[in-house]
From TrEMBL:
<dbReference type="InterPro" id="IPR002347">
    <property type="entry name" value="SDR_fam"/>
</dbReference>
<dbReference type="Pfam" id="PF00106">
    <property type="entry name" value="adh_short"/>
</dbReference>
<comment type="similarity">
    <text>Belongs to the short-chain dehydrogenases/reductases (SDR) family.</text>
</comment>
<keyword id="KW-0560">Oxidoreductase</keyword>
<dbReference type="InterPro" id="IPR020904">
    <property type="entry name" value="Sc_DH/Rdtase_CS"/>
</dbReference>
<dbReference type="GO" id="GO:0016491">
    <property type="term" value="F:oxidoreductase activity"/>
</dbReference>
<protein>
    <submittedName>
        <fullName>SDR family NAD(P)-dependent oxidoreductase</fullName>
    </submittedName>
</protein>
<dbReference type="InterPro" id="IPR036291">
    <property type="entry name" value="NAD(P)-bd_dom_sf"/>
</dbReference>
Length: 260
């Protein structure tokens, strides 16, 4: 039995990394999937390498208009939306406060928070009228950095703490029609781009020397996650059949970071 048979799921930031893992798993479980991402090339690869049945559209989550267009296009293509998965994010390459450039700090803050925080608010606001029709669900990607220090610099950690607040507040505001929850992944084998200009040492996260072993050694389960390892938790929270009474909740998928 496919757990999301005929469900329509809209995913932002779904062209690579954890987002792509969610896309692949949801397709396996029978969902119709729409993906908005800022990178057209990665969207093309997603369709070529995963499935031509994925509906894709380029857009910037920081733009409410782009989110609105994506919602309208998804409904025009599939007829409805049952779940929204917000996943787009930028990293800050572990940059501490004293190394943030004084002259560019405001611009760096604005871009990172526009993607990591406003992007989720834009997405939920744009899709809420459609989710209300289907009694649908929202699942947002948090991070260990939403709960603990050390998983990024001050900007990234602050932004992910803000996402925790969004989930709690919208779980309250949008009830009883829409459930709002989150998944909090730990270190994952993904490239995860940093905001432009935050550090002259910035590189893809999984290209950092020793990253995989260091991340595995940091948690009790002694392994680093693959992009698809978190996907089943998104499915549980997206499904009204599997989590009908769960809202305002965040599931940790972090190898046991919180109990180390």
């Amino acid at each position: 039995m496919k757990l999301l048979q005929s469900n329509v799921v809209l995913i932002t930031g779904g062209a690579d990394g954890i987002g792509r893992g969610i896309v692949e798993y949801f397709l396996e479980q029978g969902a119709h999937v729409a993906v908005m991402d800022i990178n057209v090339g990665k969207l093309d690869l997603l369709r070529d390498e995963v499935s031509e049945e994925i509906f894709t559209q380029q857009g910037d989550v920081a733009s409410f208009a782009d989110n609105q267009r994506m919602v309208a296009a998804t409904v025009a293509h599939f007829g409805k939306i049952d779940s929204f998965i917000g996943n787009a994010a930028l990293f800050d390459y572990f940059t501490p406060l004293h190394k943030l450039d004084n002259d560019t700090l405001s611009d760096t803050f604005d871009r990172l928070f526009h993607v990591n925080v406003l992007g989720y608010i834009n997405g939920v606001k744009a899709v809420a009228p459609e989710l209300k029709k289907t009694k649908g669900s929202v699942v947002l990607t948090v991070s260990n950095s939403g709960f603990y220090p050390g998983g990024g610099g001050v900007l990234y950690v602050a932004s992910k703490h803000a996402v925790v607040g969004i989930i709690k507040q919208l779980g309250h505001e949008l009830a009883p029609d829409i459930r709002v929850n989150g998944v909090s992944p730990g270190a994952t084998d993904t490239a995860m781009a940093s905001v432009d200009g935050v550090s002259d040492r910035a590189q893809p996260l999984n290209s950092i020397k020793g990253f995989h072993q260091t991340a595995a050694n940091a948690v009790p389960l002694n392994r680093i996650a693959g992009p698809k390892d978190h996907a089943h938790l998104y499915l549980v929270l997206a499904s009204n059949a599997l989590s009908p009474l769960t809202t305002g909740h965040i599931i940790h998928s972090d190898g046991g970071w919180g109990v180390k």
